[in-house]
Amino acid sequence: MASSDKKTKGKQKTEIKIIENADDRLIAFSKQRTRIYKKISELSTLFGGEILLIIFSPAGKPYLFGHPSIEYVAKRF
Fold it and tell me: Any stretches that span the bilayer, and where are they (predicted)?
């Protein structure tokens, strides 16, 4: 099988680098934060777990997510 017959490039290694522009970095953080909240919510519903997540923005502001609530999970520790 010749390499020209391949339809995809296969598994590629992605370079991770910091986003230099501060505005672009905040936009990327906001999008990822929303995706992470959604995924954590799905996992806690699926497995019935109690989850507390703390994420810090590039500006240093903390964002909290807790299921069933932040207070309920935090009291356990």
Answer: 40-59
| Average pLDDT over the chain, rounded to an integer | 87
**Structural domain of 44:** 20-74
pLDDT digits (tens, 9 = 90+) for 38-69: 999 999 989 988 899 999 998 899 999 988 88
Q: Tokens 């490039």 belong to which residue?
A: 9
Tokens standing for 3?
Answer: 């390499």
Number of domains in the chain: 1
Distance of CA 47 to the CA centre of its chain: 18
Give the global pTM: 0.64
∠ CA 60-65-67, rounded to 5°: 165
Alpha-carbon radius of gyration of the chain: 19
